[in-house]
Amino acid sequence: MLRKFAKRTSCLVISFIFMFMLSVPCLAAADGVARMTNIESAGCNLVFEDGKAIASARVTGVRGAEKCKIVLKIQEERAGRWYTVDTCTVEQDMSIATASSSVKAKQGVTYRAQATVTVWVDGASETKTVTT
Question: For residue 71, which phi and psi values (nearest 5 degrees)?
Answer without folding.
Answer: -115, 105
